[in-house]
Amino acid sequence: MTPLPHDISPFHRSLTVPSKNLPFPCGRTRRSVLADTALSFTGLAMGAMLHRDGIVRANDRRVGQPSGDPPETPIIDGRAQHRPKAKSVIWLFMGGGVSQVESFDPKPALMKYAGLTIEESPVADQVLKSPFYRKNVRDFAGGPRKLMAKIYPMQIGYRPRGESGVEVTDWWPHVGSMIDDIAVVRSCWCTDNDHAAQYEMHTGHHIFDGYHPSVGSWAHYGLGSLNENLPSFVAIGDPPGVCCGGKGAQNGAYLGPEHNAVHLKFDANNPLPYASPGPEVFQEEQAAEFELLRELNSLSAAKYPEDSAVRARMKSYELAYRMQTSIPEVFKISGETASTADLYGLNNPVTKPFGESCLLARRLVERGVRFVQLYHGGGGGGSWDAHSNLKDNHGKLSPQVDQPIAALLRDLKQRGLLDETIVVWATEFGRTPGEEGTKGRDHHPYGFSCWLAGGGLKGGLAHGATDEIGFHAAEQRHYVTDIHATVLTQLGLNPRSLEVPGHKRLEIEFGKPIREIMA
């Protein structure tokens, strides 16, 4: 084959025909290029761009793989980099900051030392002389938050749950009943002491760093879709407020808008706002319009092959057309059994809203959606933000989500889906062991809990630990990107390979998989 000149464009390079019956330099075959040629020049442009984005035909091969041999030079094709333990992720996010000591890391010492200041208590040195005190926090409002020195007792009881005996508080009895399938990580920490930590939990970046891809966007970028009629990355519920990263928590940033989440609204009559042309437009008429748009966009793409906005527009139009029939079917939960409705609490006004969202999440992963991001208490700083009257706040919100989350785990398990689906429960930070205001707790980035279940992960264990009163993550500390790395690894991706030219990532951004909770 004649060597290619160095100044040839990537687009024309992908169309250069090699000799004999070898794949193209980009990994495509002569047959696929000829197939595109039959669709005119727009077909060539479309085929080349989609291949560059990792979308290939079944008859396209890898270099050095003429007859099923192992590939010598792999191409980016949306396949896992190693054997995956999971196919999908359901990411449950509680906005506002759930108290770790009143959920999955109960601390009896709070009862013992209640009313004392931290300085007066035996834990003073553990807290105030810790090498982690004030060290990693980047103050969102320009100054450090107060210590909240007066130790505040736990506002709810707790007990060991399941055969494993992991302690969970009485605000989470249903989730506690599934604890033998859950790995609780009690030693998470972050750097933001305000609610932009919601953005940090999803991207691994402080809001001062600017916009970066979310964990769902990285999964989409690395693996693509399992169902061409549904989006690969979906968000349900109210995202963080503008103050706290907004939709940046579910966007692709420099990866391109095609890696943003598609936001769905739980409304059986209008699940995909603004995507339907209305009842007065015939399907054939709309199909013709989409075909014209595709050809026009393909011409633009051929002229501007590096324009990510064109690629995203083409994909969004085509996906939106297919979703008009596929999404309404997903939302038809009326076809579920009465026992399933009872399981998720759909007959109870307290649990119904989040129960519907959890059931929808199951139906989405069941149909091949890769990453489902589910919000509770979103908007503004988040509903779980209990600066005062924590008992009233958490006592009201926990029942809204406890039964539906446990139902999701149990339903996935009984259908054989939990083995291939990772469920993550997260919040942006914990809450202070000390009292704020009137019977409340302040933001607490120094140590808090998240948990994971399914997808090749161990259950019935508590990994890591905070100190005696739940202040610092003290043992086996994990920055939030360790949660990301664990999820991505189980999906079959090497987190350290997720980097694009021109956007160098720091060591902490990649995170480290939590091997201790991997089965």
The CATH top-level class label of the largest domain:
Alpha Beta
Beginning-to-end CA distance, first to last residue: 48 Å
- Could you tell me the CATH topology label of the largest domain: Alkaline Phosphatase, subunit A
In total, the number of domains comes to 3
CATH architecture of the largest domain: 3-Layer(aba) Sandwich
Shape: globular
Provide the helix percentage.
25-40%
| Total helical elements | 15
Number of strands: 15
Beta-strand percent range: 5-15%
Poorly predicted runs: 1-76
User: Could you tell me the mean pLDDT?
Assistant: 83
Structural class: alpha/beta
The major sheet is characterized as: 9 strands, mixed
Note the run of SSEs as H and E: HHHEHHEEHEHHEEHHHHEHEEEEEEEEHH
Query: If you compute it from the alpha carbons, what radius of gyration comes out, rounded to the nearest whole angstrom?
Result: 25 Å
Offer a concise description of the structure.
31% of the residues lie in helices and 12% in strands.
